[in-house]
Amino acid sequence: EMIFLYFLVLNVVKNEEQQKALVIIMSVVVLLISIRSYRDFTGGSVFSYDKRYGGPFETVGLGANHLGAFIVYTSAVFLGLFFYDNDKKRKWLYIATVLFSLHPLFFSYSRGAYLAALGVLSFYAVVKKKSLLILVAVIFLAWQTLLPASVVDRITMTQTETGELEGSAAHRLVLWDHAIDLFKQNPAFGVGFGGFGFAVPKGETLTDTHNFYLKTLSEQGVIGLFFLLLILLMAMRSGFILLKIGKTPFYQGLGFGFMGCIIAYGIKNMTGDSWSFFAVSGYFWTFWGLVDRGILLSKDSNPKTAKSLTT
After folding, report:
1. Which of 119, 162, 180, 308 has a CA positioned 20 to 30 A from the CA of residue 35?
2. How far apart are CA 167 and CA 174, in angstroms?
3. Is the pTM of this model over 0.85?
4. C-alpha count within 13 angstroms, C-beta hemisphere, residue 277
5. Is 165 helix (H, G, I), strand (E, B) or coil?
6. For 199-217, how does the pLDDT look when each residue is reduced to its tens digit (9 = 90+)?
7. Cα(first)–Cα(last) distance of the chain, in Å?
8. DSSP string, 51-104
9. Helix or strand or coil: residue 218?
10. Would you give the distance in Å from CA 295 to the centre of its chain?
11. What are residue 194's phi and psi, to 5 degrees?
């Protein structure tokens, strides 16, 4: 269904004005989710597993980690667009979406999403906006002072006072070890799609690896992991091509933002599954369809340059 969404966008959204309209709609949706988070949820001074903001994802059986994944990779696109697009109204919309999205990002209490956000900022700082290096350095040095108290509590609880991993993190290591054992038994093809949950030790309550790469490796082997990484590389390539051959600031921003999206997506999947759920990944495939349509339109305007980049 998600792959079909890519082809739907690629073939239906045929020109730049339609692409801009769809990006605006997507940005408004993320902004409204973030504003609702700001209105409805207040974090305390101490983290609690029972008090995490899942937003609209709770209505489809997902949780705060999925919300964190969705927010971080979509906001990466809008921040990338902000750096390039020269339309003032859209720029205000992009930056408002990014700033308001900090609230659901923080109070999803997803440590993987925090790491992904830091990865995106670092990538943008190195590639585009060197001044962001100052922000990254400030966050790295003073995060315990700058971040909300409950967020600091969530991050610091990763290790106990004795230096040991807390229960949730330690449990994930057990699941990862089991995934590696399954891979060693079936290195080429794995135990079969969706098989990890049926192969967990008796009495184990968690049936997901909380690492999509290890999940793919255990269920689909080296072949499955190869194709997964190939998809991510092809997506990054699409963003890079549009950044280079895009004839308008909007296209350049869309390509750059999509590269940031892949960075966020790749990092977040190290600590969970942000790939398999339509509610989380639908926008990813939509953005990819927009990017590849932008490449096709740019090829029409400059076929020689596009051909050399896409060969």
Report:
1. 119
2. 11
3. yes
4. 18
5. strand
6. 777 666 666 778 899 999 9
7. 29
8. ----GGGGGGT--HHHHHHHHHHHHHHHHHHHHH---HHHHHHHHHHHHHTHHH
9. helix
10. 22
11. 75, 10
